[in-house]
Amino acid sequence: MTTPPRPPDDDPTTPYNTPGGYQSPPPGGYPPPPPYGPPPGYGPPPQQYGSSEDRMWVMVAHFGGAAAAFFGAVWLGWIPPLVAYLSRGQQSPFVRAESLKALNFQLLWTIVGVIGYALICAGLGFIIVGLAVLIATIFGVIAGIKALNNEPYHYPLTYPFVK
């Protein structure tokens, strides 16, 4: 390590002290660190949103919609959320809200898929149908995973047909 250059009139045998250099520590030492606690942002586990039967119906709505959209080439994605809504929606507000979200999402992408099937003659329909199947499947699986973790999920790219 090199030392800074000395002024021309300075004695080279004396130690060089730069202004604002090292300061001595405060007398008595430093105070002890604060006690350790959990990192910020971590809290209690999430609140349960209903019984295990409610969670099962919510997963039927989300995962079933994704599977039906994939295997039914986007035609059938709306059926599992409708079944969940009609079978358990009147008894559980959680199932009602989540199945309505899934139903509205799958209805929108079924309509997009039908438009894509109509445009197959123009050559553009294959792309539209493929995108509709992928979007309905991917977001349905993401919503199902959130339901599995007992978290509500809000679908992007949706329209509230059923209220």
In terms of quaternary structure, what is this?
single chain
Q: Tell me about the biggest sheet?
A: none
Classification by helices and strands: mainly alpha
Uncertain residue segments = none
The radius of gyration computed from the alpha-carbon positions, rounded to a whole number of angstroms, is 32 Å
- SSE string: HHHH
- End-to-end separation in angstroms reads 73 Å
SS summary, helix count:
4
The count of β-strands is 0
What general form does the structure show? Answer: elongated
Q: How helical, in percent, are the residues? A: 40-55%
Strand portion, in percent? under 5%
Mean pLDDT comes to 81
How does this model look, in words?
Helix 1 (52-71) packs antiparallel against helix 2 (79-88), helix 1 (52-71) packs antiparallel against helix 4 (125-148) and helix 3 runs antiparallel to helix 4. The chain starts with 51 loop residues before the first helix and ends in a 15-residue tail after the last helix. It is mainly alpha-helical and 163 residues long. The protein is elongated, with a radius of gyration of 32 Å. The chain has four helices and no strands. Residues 1-49 are annotated as: Disordered. Residues 24-47 have a biased composition (Pro residues). This is DUF4870 domain-containing protein. It is a multi-pass membrane protein.
